[in-house]
Design a protein that fits this description.
By secondary structure, this protein is of the alpha+beta class. It is built from two helices and eight strands; from the N terminus they run ββββαββββα. It is 21% helix and 35% strand.
């Protein structure tokens, strides 16, 4: 079980605050499970791959009015099949192949102003794969 201290931002007020996230990285089940409590609300997601588990978790927070200020929330965060069991993503750029220097931890802080959802990330990924 891994624990991460992350920054959430309440989207209506732009108020930032810290939350602890617990991640079971397939240690007790076959899935990556992500859990956090924000006030009286429990947010949880699970998937057999790390980025989809993160995306489901992030989308639940977005629906509740919270953005996560971390690398996984960037529009250009993508994960290769070989990375799917790790907490790492590539931060890619249009027209350029992903390189090892582009690999970052999902949970590391990112100073974001916009918070895309999974569909927006997938659309970016589709455009990126078509242009690289």
């Amino acid at each position: 079980m891994q624990t991460y201290e992350i920054t959430l931002i309440e989207l209506n007020t732009q108020y930032p605050f810290s939350v602890q996230v617990e991640v079971d990285e397939a240690e007790t089940t076959g899935d990556i499970t992500i859990f956090a409590r924000v006030g009286n609300h429990k947010f949880e997601s699970a998937s057999d791959a790390y980025l989809p588990a993160f995306q489901e978790f992030r989308d639940k927070l977005l629906t509740a009015g919270y953005g996560i200020k971390c690398n996984g929330s960037r529009i250009n965060a993508v994960q290769s099949g070989m990375m799917e069991a790790t907490d790492k993503v590539y931060l890619v750029e249009m027209g350029r192949q992903a390189l090892t220097k582009d690999i970052v931890p999902i949970w590391d802080y990112a100073d974001l102003d916009i918070f895309p959802n999974t569909e927006q990330q997938k659309k970016f990924f589709k455009q990126w794969t078509a242009k690289r």
